[in-house]
Amino acid sequence: MDCWEERYEDGKERCDWMKQERPHPPFTTFRKPPRIRKRLRNDHRGLPIPHVDITVHDTAPCRLREHYYATLQDDLMYMTYVHESGPRPPPRDIRLKYDPDDPYTKHRVNPPVGGDRIGKKPAPVTTAENVVKLEKIVLHTMIKEAIANRSFLLAAIASFRALSGQTKQGGGRHSATGVEIVKAKKSVSGWVRPGVPLGVKVELKGPQMYDFIATLTEFVLPRLREFSGIVMPPSSTNMQTPSGVAGVVTFGLPPEALGYFPQIEVNVEAYPKPHGMHIHFVTNAEGQGAQNKARALVSGFQVPFSRK
Length: 308
Known about the structure:
Order of helices and strands: HEEHEHEEHEEHEHE
Radius of gyration: 31 Å
Structural class: alpha+beta
Mean pLDDT: 83
Number of helices: 6
Shape: globular
Strand order of the largest sheet: 4-5-3-8-7
Low-confidence stretches: 1-11
Distance between the termini: 108 Å
Strand content: 5-15%
């Protein structure tokens, strides 16, 4: 009896000690979900809008993006580096065509003497921060039949949505513009009026941009018979032009290349008439030699070049 009383007393003291020392849980548990006091608003399609922003992030690592930051970036830095021993001298002042102090020519367009100097824009100082990189890819096409009947744009819109997988602000990305309709800006006598839909374009950024390059180089370009590479101008061509300092690589694909994309090939019958397209690789290169830097970057992604 005495032993039982001792064990009872010990157990009681232990229980009291545990009640005193045990900390309270940092969270509150609910036996049932809280009641929604405010109803969700509906958008123009009648779908409820959640209280929080839903953003779709990458579900798998991007192979080509890892290839750029692991290998290609260092190689491009080595290939395009230009050593400068000291600070650059200030730019030379170019005389204007008219005297800016003359009241008779004050409001005239006053270009510099010798024409536009955009082709002679110097390249920025080479550093590890401004190594040439891909910013976006722009796909666009023009449908001539859409001038008379805009319904011919439906096939181009559907194919570009399948290639890019983009919709306007899709996946919570507010910068995503989706597939856009290109309209005429100027009037062409007897043919085009301003505001008439002419074509379709879409911009690819981020992982979708690198996925498109992988599809292009692995499935489409090897199956084109007469495609030996992006045609480069002769080596003696003057590169001091607006296109030479832009850092944009552009080439076109014929209509039969559209059926080689896996997104289109799986259901070719859904696209009645194939169309060609122009592909623009937009980089951050600028100044003299920007075109060569952009070509070196694109060639690092297994896109071939050829010179005739």
